[in-house]
Specification:
7 strands, Trna Endonuclease, Chain: A, domain 1, globular, about 180 residues, about 20% strand, single chain, five-stranded mixed sheet, alpha+beta
Length: about 180
């Protein structure tokens, strides 16, 4: 597959953000996307009863890619933010222009979501970064200099598919309540 244009990436990213906000709202969790180049989150989710707001980072890829580029913001080795989540969106090609909507065809064109707490994403990216750096050192005899390109392959995201309960329970958790991210 050739190089993906910046326009295509923008459409893909925006579609993923809207889909995540829509899925949260569908689950009765208030959510809204944010706009701009200096935003602190792709999606903000909030609950009026608990008075809690959480940030959701969204990374979207197409079905041909097989992985998500998450960048070095995900590389956190400690001090994870319990009010930050990552949702990876696998966006297949759009449904063809046809009235044929049997379940198999419809499902083939439905987005898939993989939900990570900041700790889960941080641990995964730390491990992947450490593995890459040790392999580089073994192959070249020197340390890798640079941030690298942090990616999550599909097979490592698969166990996190549709784990929306993490976001649902955290956003509804009142300040001062004990509990984990589930």
């Amino acid at each position: 597959m050739g190089k993906i244009s910046q326009d295509h990436k923008s459409f893909l990213n925006m579609a993923g953000e809207f889909l995540v906000a829509a899925e949260l709202n569908r689950r009765k969790v208030q959510a809204a996307i944010t706009y701009g180049t200096s935003k602190s989150a792709d999606v903000w989710s909030f609950d009026a009863e608990s008075n809690r707001a959480i940030r959701v980072e969204v990374k979207t890829t197409g079905e041909a890619s097989g992985n998500w580029v998450v960048g070095d913001r995900a590389l956190v080795r400690e001090a994870w933010d319990p009010d930050l989540f990552w949702v990876l969106v696998l966006l297949p090609s759009p449904h063809p222009d046809t009235a044929d909507t049997h379940d198999e065809l419809r499902g083939k064109h439905s987005p898939r979501f993989f939900v990570f707490s900041s700790e889960e994403m941080g641990r995964l990216m730390s491990r992947r970064d450490d593995d890459y750096r040790s392999g580089f050192r073994a192959r070249h005899g020197v340390e890798f200099a640079g941030p690298g390109v942090l990616k999550v392959p599909f097979q490592e995201a698969a166990p996190f598919e549709n784990l929306w309960r993490k976001i649902e329970s955290r956003v509804r958790q009142r300040s001062g309540e004990c509990g984990t991210e589930a």
